[in-house]
Each structure stands twice: as structure tokens, then as C-alpha cells.
Fold these 4 entries.
Entry 1:
Amino acid sequence: MFCNKSFKKWNATKTTKHKSVPWWTGELKLMRRRINALRRRYQRTTNYNGLRQRCKNQYNGGKLQYQAAIKRENSNLGKNSATSTQLRTHGTPFTSLPRTKQIEANP
């Protein structure tokens, strides 16, 4: 009873460990889930009539497709200069401010 009054209650807010990236798409999210499922299936199978080898081949083939899709999406971001400019400046397009003349002090 006294402890509740003497100590402040700490409300933990949910924080994210990783920042989101602008090129990540829903398609990549689904591919990631599929690749993780294939990896788990490959790791949990025993060598029953070559089943483990087939699972390994499926996983490696899917992983190559997934990595290629990530590279494709990441490279597409840089090709669109307006999008990349907006993303670098957190959603607002970068505009250069006019330079002002410096006033020289007369000694």
C-alpha cells in the first residue's frame, strides 16, 4: 500500500527496434514469410528418401528470388529522383533557400 504511493508507476511505451524503409513492400513481406516457412521446413526435416535435399533446393531457390526482389525494389527507389528527394528530407521536397549577402563590417 505504501509502496504504491511512494514509487512512481512506469508506463512502458511500445518502441520499435528497427526503422521502416521506404522501399519495403507488401510483396516482400509475403515473400519473407514464405522463405522463413521454407527454411523451417528444411531445417526440421530428416533425410527421408531425399526429402531434406528437396526442401533445401526449394529454400535456396526461393531465397535467391527473395534477394533479387529486395535488390530490385531497393534499386527502383533511386531511379525516381522526386521520390528519393522526398524521402531524404522526410516527406518534404528539398528546396534551396536563396543566399543572402553577408554584410561587411567597416573597420
Entry 2:
Amino acid sequence: MNPAPQKTVKRGALKPHPLPKLRSLIRTEQEFNAEEMARIKRGFIPEAMEDKWFIYFSRNRLRFHRSWTGFCVYVAHFKPRQDNFVLSLIEANRDAEQYTGKEMPATNKWFFT
């Protein structure tokens, strides 16, 4: 039996805050094929208290928000390249009043591993 297809998350599912001006830019060149991008574009809606993230894809950007506060913590920028997409830039929230999580990456290695 096949599982029900996962719905794609839209921005309106949560009242997210924009990424603050205090941020760092992490340059990268990580390529994803069409199947991987289809999964990435679905995003994630938290279903339990333990789920910390609300994630949605819009205008070639994957946005990561804290589920309880709505604060934007990461914005991952994708560019189309032939039949694939390339993750080219990650913007990371550095406002300690919004996010002090220890999992903040210093590089792009934290993403999609």
C-alpha cells in the first residue's frame, strides 16, 4: 500500500517573521536533482511539540522558521541549473534575541546531510 502523498507547505500555514538584518551569508554550491528538489519543495509543518521547525519553499527559497515563535532562522537560496537546482547561498539569523540555537552552522555542511 502506498502512503498518502505529502501536501506542499505554503507560507500562510504559519505567521512567520522575516529574517532580521543581523545575519550571516554562507556561500555554497550544492546541487540537487529533480527528485530531491520535489522533496525539498514540500517543506515541513510541525505536528508535535517536539517539532521545532516550520519550513516552506517560495520563489526559489527554502525558509526555515522556528515553529513556536515564527522567527526566520535560515533562508536557503536555490538557482535552476539545466535539469537541477543549486543551493547557492544560505542566510543565517544571527540575532541572539530571536535565535540562540547551538545548531547554527558555521558552514553549509549542516544543510541537507
Entry 3:
Amino acid sequence: MTARAAASPNRLREFRLARRSTIDALAYEAEVGSTTVWRVENGRVLPNRATMRALAAALGESVDVLFPPEQPEPASDTGPTTSNGRAVNAAEARLPGGRGHGARLA
């Protein structure tokens, strides 16, 4: 397992509870530690591929179903704007008495 936290939620708990299984029972079936299952379910760690495969096999699901691929965050297409939609750059927004002074940021 890697030490980095899971960036996106996984569905491990959802499928484990649907089977009315405990963390300990799933850990036993997947031949991993119960602490590992808890950490994965709670997003504390992102498991390596071998652990993902073991957990998926124990639940009778595919890795892609339990651990959906990360979806990139949509990039903001615009920055701050005034109430009339005009773009405000950072320098304008900080100028007291300047064009950006008092501008409402959307």
C-alpha cells in the first residue's frame, strides 16, 4: 500500500455492507489486514493494485467498480469577475480607490 491518501472515494464500504460483511471478514477473505480494509474504506490510504485485486475478488467485483478511476477536476475557465462580468486581475482587486476597489467578485 502507498502512504498517500485516496484522492477519490472508493466504493469498498458500500459493497462490503451490501454483503453484510464485517471489516474483519472481508480482510480474512482478501488475505489483508483489517486495519488495511479500514484505512482504504476511510480514504486514509490508496491500496496498491494487488490489494485492490484481492479486495475486489473477495467481494466478487471488478477493481474498476470498487475503485473508479479519478476524474480530473474541471478547470476554472475564468477568474474573478465584477458584477457586470468583467474580468478582474489580482492587481486591480487590491488597488484601494482603483478600478477594482469595491468590485464584487463572483
Entry 4:
Amino acid sequence: MGSDRTRALELLEEALAEARRIDDNDANRAFLITGLATQFLTADIIRSWEVTTEAIKATNAAKGFSGKADSLSVALVTSSGLKLIDPIPQA
């Protein structure tokens, strides 16, 4: 991955800096930081967990954030590869 990985991390950090500029009580901030944490998974799993912690804080700070979305997928890294699961059954 080399320089591509480095560039990807730079872009993700830039996107995270922009997401941080959104008001703390805005639910969009929480959604964006959560999405960025997911994207960090492929390039830097440790950084992904750090950003996930920030996403949790953002969700707790957002006014009226219900966590409801059209869908939610969780990525699990296993020895056989990346697995996506849907923890919320669709009605």
C-alpha cells in the first residue's frame, strides 16, 4: 500500500479535521466521525479505534441524536478477512 496508504491517511485526517469543525451538538458530526472511523479500518486499525472513541463522544454530545439511520453495518476483521454484518434486523 505504501504511498497510497500514506495519502489515504492524510485525506482521512483532513476529513476528520473538517468534521470536527461541525458544532458539537449537531448529529451530522457524529455520523461523519463514525463513517470516518469505519474508513480508517482499512488503512490503520489502531487509528480507527481512536476515532471510534471520538465518534462515541460526538454521539453523546449531539442534541437529539437518536442513532437511528436507514441502515447500520459493522465491519469485523477476522483471520479470514473483513466481514460486514447488519446488527439491526430489517422489519
